[in-house]
Amino acid sequence: MKITDAKVFVTSPGRNFVTLKIYTEDGITGLGDCTVNGRELAVKSYLEDHLIPCLIGRDARDIEDIWQYCYRGAYWRRGPIGMAAIGAIDVALWDIKGKALGVPVYQLLGGRSRAGVTVYGHASGLDKAEAMDAVAQYKEDGYKAIRVQSGIPGLESTYGVGRGRWFYEPADRTLPPENKWSTRKYMNYVPELFEAARELVGPDIELLHDVHHRLTPQEAAEVGKRLEPYSLFWLEDAIPAENQEGLRMIRQHTTTPLAIGEVFNTIYDCQTIITEQLIDYIRMTVSHSGGLTHLRKVAALAELYHVRTGCHGPTDISPVAMSACLHFGLWVPNFGIQEFMLHGEETNEVFGWEYSFEDGMVNPPEKPGLGVEYDEKLAEKHPYVRAYLPVNRREDGGMWNW
Asked: Burial letters for 245-277: b for 16+ Cβ neighbours within 10 Å, e otherwise?
């Protein structure tokens, strides 16, 4: 089953996506997602200029060998662009193998470990009242886990507050928008937000929160301690991921579970924090961490140290990658939860994917492979438009982490 061609498509049905399609001599094709939000054309170039020429003529069934070739064969390796490109190739090959054998990808991984993939929804609002309305709606709709984000009194904008009831899309099609940030205003407000949320949903609904890398370890330890009465499922990205030693300080002061890793690309990024049990959930996702082949290895390491998965799943992960995450989550033994952000109608039409949601869980399609098909003609109606994620400044004007 030799690879005969591979093409990269950049389209914007509501937001930008980068999709890889691999073709074989048998007529079977496979899809992979390599969207890196705000750096889409860089991934396209790496695939077209460097990796795709090396794929032609190789056996599409040799997934592990192709992964090793793309990773070890590049002296300049790792990083978000390179690993996203490898991830797209890898997922497309799993898609091809599933179609060739007539089974969904999760069956190739080892079959089901659970009835469905528990997901969390994103409840947000410009203020506490609006956020609580969103929380109540997610609970009514059957979600068993809800991430809660809210505008902060005294700040014009902040991370996680969506544009409408269901959709959160931070990228902007002009120059990067600038947000303002105050650590003290945030720290004073967030316990109040979760007191209201816990009172609203009761003890059985899981609550999550994303700090988005905005605190120092000492500040994060204080926030985690103040949130303990509300029994969060996790506190996500409490500090920047670069200085991982800071997680040790947080661990010493709070029992609130910690999740981190959506910006990680390889197993080496999370090796220490997993083996030293400094986190509870690893947030690496299929498309940004070298595909299913590599993420399986991360999960196996994590399982040894009581760390569970919590794959990143924002709107800049296309239905191709989301489907791969669901197949992975259905199989992986140390599953924790799956982030699940709804795509717009235009996106779902281009990617032609379907999923089932019941009792707080999502299942991927039962079709062979990933169960996603890419409509090239329809995608042409949505050309790429340059877009940027926001940047963040403190109230005094100094740059800070977005």
From this structure: ebbebbbeebebbbbbbbbbbbbebbeebbeee
